[in-house]
Design goal:
single chain, Aminopeptidase, 5 helices, globular, transferase, NAT_camello-type, Acyl_CoA_acyltransferase, N-acetyltransferase domain-containing protein, GNAT_dom
């Protein structure tokens, strides 16, 4: 763990709803983290989504929400929830990415729980996600939160994500 990472505490991190002013910074976090893990836009990963630069618009519909994490005035991560098209009662945990600056601080767990609580409040019965084995830290977290492997649902467009998981809410 680096000196900088040790100094970051939850008190220095702020979780808030995504705004249009955050679009460029959030898209850059997703691009940077994707590149770090070798998740290239020429494959079916989130980094290739056509809506990546306007995510605040994507999370406007009812039953959708996206939160960003701010550190020193900069967006350094986030995660969202949206209905899974064609699957009544099922939402999807989407675009959970964290800059290396804040990894290891428990923010993924904190934000995941916030997303799960939101999904329950919205009346969803299940939360679905797609990921890839390259994201080992994320897989470990999902298992700790109670997600289990399942078949792929819906048409998310993330065909390179070979792992599908679901959580009963």
């Amino acid at each position: 763990m680096t000196q900088t990472t040790k100094q970051i505490t939850h008190a220095h991190l702020h979780i808030r709803q995504l705004t249009p002013a955050d679009n460029a910074a959030l898209a850059q976090v997703i691009r940077d983290v994707s590149a770090e893990y070798g998740l290239t836009p020429d494959k079916g990963f989130s980094v290739a989504d056509k809506t990546l630069d306007c995510l605040s618009e994507v999370y406007q519909p009812e039953g959708s929400q996206y939160w960003v994490i701010e550190y020193q005035g900069n967006v350094v991560g986030g995660a969202g929830v949206a209905p899974l098209a064609g699957n009544d009662g099922v939402c999807e945990l989407q675009k959970m990415y964290f800059s290396h600056v804040i990894r290891g601080q428990g923010m993924a767990k904190t934000l995941s729980r916030q997303c799960i609580e939101y999904a329950k409040q919205q009346g969803y019965q299940s939360m679905y996600l797609e990921t890839t084995a390259v994201l080992g830290e994320a897989l470990a977290l999902y298992k700790k939160l109670g997600f289990r492997h399942c078949q792929h649902l819906g048409q998310t467009g993330h065909d390179a994500c070979e792992i599908a998981m679901i959580l009963d809410l």
